[in-house]
Amino acid sequence: MSIARSENVVWQRGWLRPWLRSAAVVLPLVVVAAVVAGNWELIGSSAGRLGEADRRWLAASCLAAFLTWVCSATAQQGAVVETLPPGRLLATQFAASAANHILPAGVGGNAVNLRFLLRRGLSPSRAVGALAVRTCATVTGRLVLLGLVLAFFPGALHIRRVIAGGSVVPAHPLLLVAAVALLLTGGYVATRCARKLRERARAFLASAATDVRALHRNRARIAALWGGGLAFPAMHAMVVVTVMRALHSPVPVSGVVAAYLCASTAAGWVPTPAGLGSLDAALALALVTAGAPAVTATSAVLGYRLATTWLPLVPGVMVLAVLVRRREL
């Protein structure tokens, strides 16, 4: 039996891997359930407030949500030297967004995109590298936008507003326990897997570096990659902005954009499906620091989830099924 195969068998038989994977998904969701239970009255009143919102602005939020998939498809094309079929690429992003709501930390969406790239003839290492390059561009775009907003509007967020008005997220001991457990779990996994993955990481980085050099010799790919990477978080921020306008909130656009960028950056460290719960709590808290009342902030989070998660969910699953049936995935 080869070394790679023996390592595979040991990894599959190990009792820690399923336990760690389950804990990474279940623990944050338990914390979310505790937060929701502690704020049920606030959520109920916020849902009623959302029902009275301006329908035109809510329609604009749905349009901004659609543009997030266009930006994602653009960035994915920019991460690949080969030309991808645009219609199927956009459909794949839509299907990936639905898969993202099932598995944590973008695993579902990345799996759909990986399968699509493999079907287009890319090798596994190049396909994974393309996903990593796109993710890097998106994260960089989010950080660049956040830096620009905070540089031009330094007073957009004020933590004292949360202290004065009371936090949206209750001070629950379970939150601290979950944070410590996730930190310890991540440290243990990193220590356990570091030696096994070192050689594979070197080969992967060498392959990715070759593709990145080839991409940056093509101006169209540079524009698609970095333009899509910047526009993707910007469109998500626009969803929140339009929902806040639908709720007639006086919070300036700069504050709403800064709130979303801060919240999405923080929520990226918590492995929940599509940031469910982690992004919601962080975004509500950030909107309060931007000057929104707690009820309005919670209503905005519900509206954001409605436009980006619940309305596209069933159509996204149907598109995913069609793509699988047609062997595009």
Explain what this protein looks like in three dimensions.
- The protein is mainly alpha-helical and 329 residues long.
- 80% of the residues lie in helices and 0% in strands.
- The radius of gyration is 21 Å and the shape is globular.
Defining traits:
about 80% helix, globular, mainly alpha, disordered N terminus, about 325 residues
Helix content: over 70%
Number of strands: 0
Order of helices and strands: HHHHHHHHHHHHH
Query: Can you summarize the main beta sheet?
Result: none
Head-to-tail CA distance between termini = 32 Å
Shape by Cα distribution: globular
SSE class: mainly alpha
Number of helices: 13
Average pLDDT across residues? 74
- What is the rounded Rg? 21 Å
Determine the strand fraction and express it as a percent band.
under 5%
Which parts are unreliable, with pLDDT below 50 for 5 consecutive residues or more?
1-16, 163-172
> What kind of oligomer do you see?
single chain
Short précis:
This protein is an all-alpha fold. It has helices at 3-13, 16-38, 40-51, 55-78, 86-99, 107-119, 124-152, 160-165, 173-215, 219-246, 253-267, 278-289, 294-325.
